[in-house]
Structure formats: C-alpha cells, structure tokens
Target: DUF4383 domain-containing protein
Amino acid sequence: MNERSTISPLRPVVLVIALVHLALGLLGFFFLPEANPAGENTLWIFSATGMLNVIRTVVGVLGVAAVLKPSAILAYSWIVFVAFAGLTAFGVLSAATTLAGDAVNVGWADNVLHALTSLTALAVALLTTRRARRDQARPSTNV
Model:
C-alpha cells in the first residue's frame, strides 16, 4: 500500500479545516473598518482582527496545498495541532481576563473553533502515523 492510499481517507478532513479557516480569514479582512474600536470587529460570532485573519488565511492556504500533495498532510496536521493548541491556551487566558489592547482579541467562539481544529489535526496526525506504521509492518508480497 502506498502513502497516497494511506492518507486518502483523511484528505477531506484536512480540506474542511483548510476551507473553514481560509473562508474566515479572507472574509475577515472585509470586516475590519478603521472606525470600529478593537474587539467590535466580528465575522458572525468569530473575532475578525488583522492577526487572526492572517493566521487563518495562512492555515487555509497551507491546508489546501497539503491536500494537493498528500505527503504533506502529516506535517501540516502536526503544525496545526501545535499552533492551535497554543492559540487556544492564549485565547482562554485572553478571553478570561479581557485585557484592553490585546492585538489578537480572541473570544470564546474563537477558542472553541481553535480547540476543535487542534483536536481534529491531532487525530489526523495520529491516524496518519498509525496507518503508515501498520503498512510498514505488514509484509509486502510482490506478485
């Protein structure tokens, strides 16, 4: 079994992660009028700050690239897991203290999205690693 067939069932999951973040990131740039004070720029229930929009857009573009090159899905999943676990931890502290002047301005809806993204990326990374190890352990028969 080759690497492409090992990762194929997980490609739609990575694509959903990428498209959700790409859409939120790109749409967020349109909801950043200069007249609004920080914290009042929202896209539906999610914060739309410049920093979050850049992060989400980069995660979305890298995810689409990973889907197009399946060998990159494992690396993408681990990177997204670590980045969004950190962003979730920062967001919980930020949302709990509500300090003025926070450049990222993460709310509770963002924290939930980031935590779910992090856990999904962890699951994809672990499943990809497990399948690859199982396929390597299985003796191959050349016919």
